[in-house]
Amino acid sequence: MRARNDERDDPGPRWLTETHRRLDLPAPTPRSFCEVCGHALTEAEYRSVHEHLERQAQSIARALHDESGQLLTAAHLALCDISPDVSEAARKRIDEVRQYLDSIEEQLRRIAHEIRPRLLEEIGLVAALEFLAGSVEKRRGLVVTVDAGPLRTLQPTIETTIYRVVQEALNNVTRHARAASARIQIRRMTNALHCTIQDDGIGFDVDLVLNSRGATGMGLIGMRERLGILGGRIDVRSAPGRGTDVEVVIPLED
Predict the structure, then answer these.
(1) Dist. CA 1–CA 246, nearest whole Å
(2) Which one in 1, 6, 170, 204 has a CA-CA gap of 20 to 30 Å to 103?
């Protein structure tokens, strides 16, 4: 994997030149519409919608983590109460049920984190990406490595955007790429944050797929809109049999 040190147009390796697509993000042109009246959303309105959705995600994640955790604890206590009054065979079955409950609790914790990663707020972007990588590896069998240089302090909106884009890119890898491994590389340059998600999967013809299925099928519209708020861009490079390379660039203030 290559890290770019500037924002110059880079056609990439020769085999990629025919299968590279930059998804330009013209900020003045809104891409979303109000579901009630149908008018195009301004950047400020879209930002407000985006923030509202993040608050909803936080609420759902809290319910999954806290309220479901309380219910599972109550179930454990109920099993403890009845365990002394049953046969040895029944106690063995109760122990199996406890193991299932433990697995459910772990899965809910991971899902809650992916919906709204508390680690972003607690210990930062890199730790959240490492947790996400471990979760994907455990659930999907895809080996994911995180390679991050010193990032210093980033705005919360930038951290959330990078996390969501990486999350969607890994979803694409697990759904479509038939890959054995993926790598997330993130670097802070002088005036931009560069993040690359690379996989060793089957690859695809970028123009053919985007023209036939559109950006919707790969979640690119959501990525594009999130990045557009921050003035960022996304590049997709791929070719059949060559894997896929997704690069995100977000400008940073000095």
Answers:
(1) 11
(2) 170
Counts for the chain of helices (H) and strands (E), in that order: 8, 6
* pLDDT at position 14: 32
Quick one: pLDDT at residue 80?
86
pLDDT at residue 170 is higher than 90: yes
Cα–Cα distances (Å) from 141 to 131, 137, 219, in that order, read 15, 5, 22
- Sheet holding 192-199: strands in order across? 20-23, 233-238, 244-251, 192-199, 181-188, 143-148
- Paired with 183 in beta bridges are 145, 198
Give the CATH number, domain containing residue 111. Answer: 3.30.565.10
pLDDT at 55: 66
Structural domain total, the chain: 1
- Would you give the end-to-end CA distance of the chain in angstroms? 27
Quick check: 49 and 32 in contact, CB under 8 A?
yes
